[in-house]
Amino acid sequence: MLDLDALRQRYLQVTGSEPEGLWFAPGRVNLIGEHTDYNDGFVLPFALERKAGIAAGRRDDDDLVLVSLELDDEVRLSLDALAPGQEGWSAYLAGVAWALREAGHQIGGANLVMSSDVPLGAGLSSSAAIECATVSALMGLYDLEIPPMDRAKLAQVAENAYVGAPTGLLDQAASTLCEAEAGLFLDCRSLETRQVPLPLAEQGLEILVLDTKTPHSHVDGEYGDRRRSCEEAAAILGVPALRDVTDLDAALAQLPDETMRRRVRHVVTENERVLEALEVAKAGELRSLAPLLDASHESMRDDYEITVPTVDLAVAQARRSGALGARMTGGGFGGCIIALIPAGEGDRIGQEIAAAFAEAGHGAPEWFSVLPAAGAGRLA
Length: 380
Description:
Elements lengths: L3 H12 L5 E12 L9 E17 L4 E6 L4 E6 L12 H12 L7 E7 L9 H16 L6 H16 L6 H8 L4 E6 L5 E5 L7 E7 L9 H17 L10 H7 L3 H26 L6 H13 L6 H12 L4 E5 L6 E7 L3 H15 L5 E5 L6 E2 L2
Helix pairs in contact: 2-3, 2-4, 3-4, 3-5, 4-5, 6-8, 7-8, 8-9, 10-11
């Protein structure tokens, strides 16, 4: 849980005054739909109760004073000097200010003191939470009226163009648009959204999120390689994006190598799984999500090749320990798994996964159980 008193106190320490407000944006779990977003496909995330919070206030000059509570670090930048390519944690906040100004929104200097309880590098969109909280804070300080999807797009611009991570819109849309007790169905081409009720508690269910503590980064080469491979395959197939492939077998026969065929098979079948999950959720039969989660993980492991041994062990042990279904969530190469479990079983299953990790010589994981939470807003 965020310590709001500590956030206010640090702001007071840095500036000598109380913040004008506190804003937040949550991390997210992607229930299903991995690496479909940049292929114009479908995703079904939901927001976490874990969030990034920002205590904010205006300045009389054109500087940004950025402070991280957890890192005990302070960075000062001039708005006019902001430029893509900045490194470090402060780039995620500065990039939002840059994106707002590039889009023609009038903002001045600001003091932004940040805290977050979204695990870093775990595939829960800690960066999107920071970006979307910054969007909310700067909107609030400077009375900007920006529709929710446009806020998500601005946060994505910050991540893509300023930080340099080639992610799709899924993370920022989820952090901004999600509602409590619902998933967000997002068509990544049309940007049509639909709130999908996920009454897990009513059905005696919850989602276990387990961080394998195997860090990953979207800025590294593997994520970009997968994206380029999909774009090349779409060009070969003569379609705008892999979302437009309707005959998978015929498409695979046209591709030049087995690696590309595996990549395409994952994206096409994952889109199908998202659409099936949507129908399952609409029917209210949430236990029927389980086989879709299992199939998604197998596809990410075997076709998209984005899992790692710790992730695969966690998924396998979760199933052995009584999870109904489990999969890796996030961009891959580390991070978290999710498991659909009976309510109240999270700690036991987490402990059994931890024991399997210890036996295999891996470091200890961390875990917590979740229900879908609300998207970005004002805390105080």
